[in-house]
Design a protein that fits this description.
The chain is of the alpha+beta class. Helix content is 24%, strand content 26%. The strands form five sheets. The chain has a seven-stranded mixed β-sheet, covered by helices on one side. It has a three-stranded antiparallel β-sheet with strand order 14-8-16. The radius of gyration is 19 Å and the shape is globular. The two termini are 34 Å apart.
Amino acid sequence: MNAAVLEQSARLGHLAEGIDLSKDMDDAAFRRLHDAFCANGVMVFRNQKISPEEHIRFSRRFGELEIHVVTQYLLDGYPELFKISNLMKDGKRVGASAEYWHSDLTYMAKPSRCSLLYAIEIPMDEAGKPLGDTLFASTQMAYDALSDAMKKKLAPLKGVHRFLDAYNRQNDQRASRGIERTAMQEKELRDKTPDVLHPVVRTHPFTGRKCLYVNEGFTVGIEGMSEADGKALIAELHAHCMRPEFAYRHQWQVGDLVMWDNCSTIHSGTSDYGPEHRRLLYRTTVKGGVPF
């Protein structure tokens, strides 16, 4: 491993060069990579050629893996791998997508620690430019930039997180564009993902730094606030997180593996490609603990 690429960066989005994820990594090298990842929040590995088994093996270095609640998008034979795709089979989508800002699985009592997304097929325009970029924002940098008064206001607050609203909203948006709706019963989803409360300001479990822990996708209210006041505060914090100095935009290439920290970042897909473009990526998510 080239240790020079693992120096801490002041900005989001860290390119880790000279690393072949198909090969085993010794413990010392993994500790360096792990520390750099925790410090930065988003790490990019280019030009990878990994099998599902190798993807899962590397992901497990960071912890136990999640099995996503939307089970129809799991890769056959590899339930740890969740498909992100616009491809169709027998008239149905084979994978998910999320064109709204969120952090993975904040609607669970123990949200994901981190996610690792590997590009199999990437859509291209007629000029050969990649489409379907992923946008990231650092909630850690965003918290640091808050005023002392706002930090004090947010310290005792808890956000209400819910999966079903985002799921239905995305289905409605797809239907308006003539894309088939994802078929899963609301009652089944509600039973699997009841509302949960998480701190609005969360402490990173490895670095101890504070991070904003609200997102427009899954945070639907603030405990103890009226619906209007809660939504207004969520919108204010979201707008703050969107400042350019907190951002990284990833333009995908086939063979990219991008991993992100779900405590210290939020992300969103872009929808600048159509059904005539092929997009397929595999994602693992690593289990996390109860936010504090």
